[in-house]
Amino acid sequence: MINHNQRKRQFIDYILQKYHHVNPTVTYLLNFLKTQPNIINSVVFTENVKYTPRGIYISYQQNTQVPFVYYKDQLSYTLCEQAFHDIRLSTKFEQQKFYLEFNTPDYFQQLYHLDIFEENPFMPQDDELVLKTNAHLERLSIEATIKQLSKKLDGALDKHQFEQVSYYLKQIEQLRGELDED
């Protein structure tokens, strides 16, 4: 049976093998976290790290404007070196926790699979409710759009407008994919 820290290392290995970050320093940072036994204890995988005292947000999405953000005491930094420096200092002095969040399609699935996800203790209660409400409203909006497109699709079929049919089918398929992601 593998322990909690070994599962954390497994997750970091998974990220490093499956995804390539635009900033090589991020890869070095993750390798450093993985290989340092006294640091992996301080790593927490969670969500909404912007609310934590020391949060690291790493995005592997192609169209992300900010692929890396380090949150420290209500300030944010986009240089990975800042986080690297703070983590190394933390091991020498007080043992700070570092909360990590990844923007990957299968982030939560992997965390739950390895049983290493932890609730963010710093997340305001109201924001959690707002996030859930927004997700529900987004789902309702997508479902309503699919319904409208289905009606347009039926009309295009009746009129034998096959280019429109193809267009509506692609739109519906894309929206259903977004529903499946949630």
Number of strands: 5
Looking at how many chains there are and whether they match, the oligomeric state comes to single chain
Runs in which pLDDT lies below 50 for 5 or more consecutive residues are: none
Q: Please state the overall shape, judged from the principal axes of the Cα atoms.
A: elongated
The percentage of residues in β strands lies in 5-15%
Mean pLDDT: 89
Strand order of the largest sheet: 1-5-2-3-4
Please work out how many helical segments DSSP would assign. Answer: 7
Structural class: alpha/beta
* Rg, alpha carbons: 21 Å
Order of helices and strands: HHHEEEEHEHHH
Main pleated sheet: 5 strands, mixed
Q: Level of helix content?
A: 55-70%
Distance between the termini: 31 Å
List keywords for this structure.
182 residues, alpha/beta, 5-stranded mixed beta sheet, 7 helices, 58% helix, elongated
How does this structure look, described?
With 182 residues, the chain is α/β, with parallel strands linked by helices. It is 58% helix and 13% strand. It has helices spanning 4-18, 24-35, 37-40, 80-92, 107-114, 125-158, 162-181; strands at 43-45, 54-59, 68-72, 75-77, 98-103. It has a five-stranded mixed beta sheet, with helices on one face. It is elongated. The mean pLDDT is 89.
